[in-house]
Amino acid sequence: MIQYTAFSLLLFILLTISNLVWGIKFDLPATPSNALTPKCISQYVYTDTLVVATIKIGVGYNQIVDVKITDNSPAHNEYGGKKDIEEDTRLAFTTHADADVSICFTNTLDDEFRPDPKYRRTIDLDIDVGAEAIDYDALAKAEKLKPIDAELRKLEQVVQEIVDEMDYLRKREARMRDTNESTNERVKWFSLGSMIVFVGLGGWQIIYLKKFFQRKRLID
């Protein structure tokens, strides 16, 4: 009984943590087409991770809201987007690299209107990453899973993400340690080389000055 209670408590805690959703709500001012400045929201995401962005747009006349999703990896991957959003939009994609994923919005004001602070639209953005991006209700129906089986499947995914993150941190720590050791080795050899050069230069100066004074017959 105690073991079952402990397991239930652990399950509740992990599912509570996993249910945290990254969301943000903000006003996006409208600007002319020749002075657009994207408003970007970024989040670091690991490779091969499912991401679902749910966008809700507030009412705004004479304004066109576009969204584009990219990352800052060397490949500069693009994960799509949508132009002239007028209703709730759901964008799903799988990342191709460990990088910051940026969801960028622009709000273009109609050319017939002058810029004014009153021209803006409210953006409500919710982002589900990894286990939270999976529709377990649909999965349970497709595979005819019981509710507890669906929750255990979700818990398994959450635990796997934790393991993957710990493995990533371990590899990152190993790379940083290798970098520190390599830097220390280079500093050591540079210091040793500098000492040899200084000692050699000092010895050369002594020999040169001795010969110079002997030529001037200042010393024997």
Protein described:
The protein is α+β, with helices and mostly antiparallel strands and 220 residues long. The protein has two domains: 21-133, GOLD domain (Jelly Rolls, Sandwich); 146-220. 43% of the residues lie in helices and 29% in strands. It contains three helices and eight strands. The chain has helices at 2-18, 136-143, 147-215, and strands spanning 22-29, 39-45, 50-57, 63-71, 78-82, 89-94, 99-109, 120-129. The chain has a four-stranded antiparallel β-sheet, with no helix packed on it. Strands 2-7-4-5 form a four-stranded antiparallel β-sheet, with no helix packed on it. The chain is elongated. The N and C termini lie far apart (101 Å).
List keywords for this structure.
43% helix, 220 residues, alpha+beta, four-stranded antiparallel beta sheet, Jelly Rolls, single chain, elongated, disordered N terminus, 2 domains
CATH topology of the largest domain: Jelly Rolls
> Average pLDDT value?
82
Q: Tally the helices: what do you get? A: 3
Low-confidence stretches: 1-20
GO cellular component, one term: membrane
Keywords: Membrane, Signal, Transmembrane, Transmembrane helix
Domain GOLD: 38-129
Main location: membrane
List the helices and strands and how they pair.
Elements: H1 2-18, E1 22-29, E2 39-45, E3 50-57, E4 63-71, E5 78-82, E6 89-94, E7 99-109, E8 120-129, H2 136-143, H3 147-215
Antiparallel strand pairs: 1-8, 2-7, 3-6, 3-8, 4-5, 4-7
Helix pairs in contact: 1-3, 2-3
